[in-house]
């Protein structure tokens, strides 16, 4: 699974890219229509690679798509890649038309974990803005994710989320099916949580992430989280001022992540095709060896309107404990954190008119969505995997009804809660 915000981690390493000659690079205008930053910090620890090997496959898939499209046309592509627990590089990926390959130029080298701080991430974004100034920007985050939750709330992390009941077994070494884009089968984990051994060092909370984008002054056309549990109303509301759209999963993402090879054309356009990107995700996962996944394109510009409607409803309705168990759960926690928002509203609003109004606002914010019949969770390791039936799916989750200790510790600190309850 991938986990990133509330807390977020990213890691990727570049595969098959070499230095390039300026004579072979495709022509780059001084001001292009769009610059995309693929942001992949470290998701392991000082002694483990985390998702690093899988990120290689993701980068290679992006490059395959660029080659198939014969370049990036009016877009530029920057990659921030943590190659070890303490070293990272910012690259520009360019298309070599004479060789029909993707190549990279090193823009800047970094040491330490500054990318996990507001100041450090601001510096990276400013560097991208300076080096690849554009009319529009987009951000793809490849890592682990746990939605809006705060890293400070995971008091016994990772054991709280990762205990397997198998003493001495490292969960990340469990052999669950993993298949790359070309069909080669190996065994990898899913993308839940960032560094499973050092969440404090290698993660960043969503408000800090949003502040860095604000500081850089480069509002995104979209932010795509290739991480677990990021399609929350809490995340969408927190990011409402720094991105137009949020593309993410409500649930756990399998190790392979999103299918960049088939999604890239929709993502790399100056006018992104959000519905096509969601459709590509759906097509890939319904045919995948582990056919489990959800994905949504959420219009963050609708979040203020949704918050106003939700605040009114919260002033007049209260969810009873006996109703909580009826709501669609979209995570694998024994005590759920992420509930389907549409189903929550159905169980919260006893008045049909109020429910209808809220759903009209909610549905206007969900540009596109997809889900498989079941979703998969590897939160607690082998022997405790979960296959969860998806009976209803609105495309976004909410943690208002959660009594999970991590949710109780943090949800009232979110901007969403403050806007809808206070």
Write the layout of secondary structure elements.
Elements lengths: L7 E3 L21 E9 L11 H17 L6 E8 L4 E10 L4 E11 L6 H14 L2 E12 L13 H4 L14 E3 L5 E3 L11 H4 L3 H11 L3 E7 L6 H6 L4 E6 L11 H8 L6 H13 L7 E6 L3 H12 L6 H4 L14 E2 H8 L3 H14 E6 L2 E4 L8 E4 L7 E2 L6 H6 L4 H7 L1
Parallel strand pairs: 2-3, 2-6, 6-9, 9-10
Antiparallel strand pairs: 1-6, 3-4, 4-5, 7-8, 10-11, 11-13, 12-16, 14-15
Helix pairs in contact: 1-7, 2-5, 7-8, 9-12, 9-14, 11-12
Structural summary, described in words:
This protein has 422 residues and is of the alpha/beta class. 30% of the residues lie in helices and 23% in strands. The protein has helices at residues 52-68, 118-131, 159-162, 199-202, 206-216, 233-238, 260-267, 274-286, 303-314, 321-324, 341-348, 352-365, 405-410, 415-421; strands spanning 8-10, 32-40, 75-82, 87-96, 101-111, 134-145, 177-179, 185-187, 220-226, 243-248, 294-299, 339-340, 366-371, 374-377, 386-389, 397-398. The strands form four sheets. Strands 1, 2, 3, 4, 5, 6, 9, 10, 11 and 13 form a ten-stranded mixed β-sheet that branches. The chain has a two-stranded antiparallel sheet with strand order 7-8. The chain has a two-stranded antiparallel ribbon with strand order 12-16.
